[in-house]
Every structure is written in C-alpha cells, then in structure tokens.
Amino acid sequence: MSSGETDWMSLGEWVVALRDLHHQARLGKLPPEELRRYHEERETLAKAILAAQRLRASPSAKGRQALRVARELKVELTLAGVYSETTTVDLGVGGFAVMLPTPVRVGQQADVRLELEHGNAVSARVRVVSMQRKGKPYRVAFRIEGLSAEDKERIGVAVFEAALARILPQDE
What we know:
By secondary structure, the chain is α+β, with helices and mostly antiparallel strands. The chain has helices spanning 11-26, 32-56, 149-165, and strands spanning 68-70, 74-79, 82-92, 95-100, 109-117, 120-133, 138-145. 34% of the residues lie in helices and 33% in strands.
C-alpha cells in the first residue's frame, strides 16, 4: 500500500476483525505491536459508543466521561461492617452500580470483591458516588479507588467484551 492510501473496510468487517483481535488478546497471543493496535481500536470503539450514548441523553444530562455497559457480575460488598452479595446493574472501568435494599450515604466507603468471570475477581476499595430510589430498592453507584493498572485492564476487558457482544455482526 502506498503512502497516504487507506485500507478501508466496512464497519461490519472491522467489528469482526476487532472481535478476533480481542480473542487473541484474551489468550495473550498478541505481539507488542498488535497489542498496542488492539488497545487503540478498543478505545476507538469505546469513544464511539460513548458518543452515541451522549446523543440519546437529554440536553441537560451530565455527560458520562467513560464507557459503562449493562453487565451482571457477582459482587461481594462489605459496607459499614455488613457483608452482602448482589450483582452489578452496570459496569465501567471506574465504577459500577448495584441495587441495594437499604439506603447508604454518598461518600461512604466499602470493600468489594467483583467477580469478572468464574475464578477471576478484583478486590478493591469503593466509594458511594450516588444513590437513587428505584421503588423499594436503591440504585447505588460506586467509584472504584486505587486500582492497579493490571486490575483496570481486567475490568476494561470485561467492559469491552460486554460492549462488543452487543454490536452486530456476530461472528459466523
């Protein structure tokens, strides 16, 4: 390919190629240059999805800064000394939301164990950033604090996997 020429492909072909790249990254089979490209492509898709989410939001809504996806993951939560188990409503690299039966205080800290998949969990300190009453339960959003780069990447993969799964075309 000569300089300045672009290798154009359809959106569908790009998604299929990105799924394959994601699969190879999960298996740890990408050389450094391909891994860099994978992260760039993953970020491109995340920005596109985030932009689409902002278009659907009301004009007065505060725009989300990072991608969040609907994803149910097991959560073990210790809040004010009380242990409970629940599941996430949504997940992003910086935080998640759950439904809780009782109200909590914004700013309150907790310890959490978030199971990304069977045998793959992240333990972290979290802080309540918002609480909304949704009928009987409360929707509580947490910001994850002090994550290592490795754990951020592990959560990023879980978020990306959920986002990628919702985009057509599916692999043949």
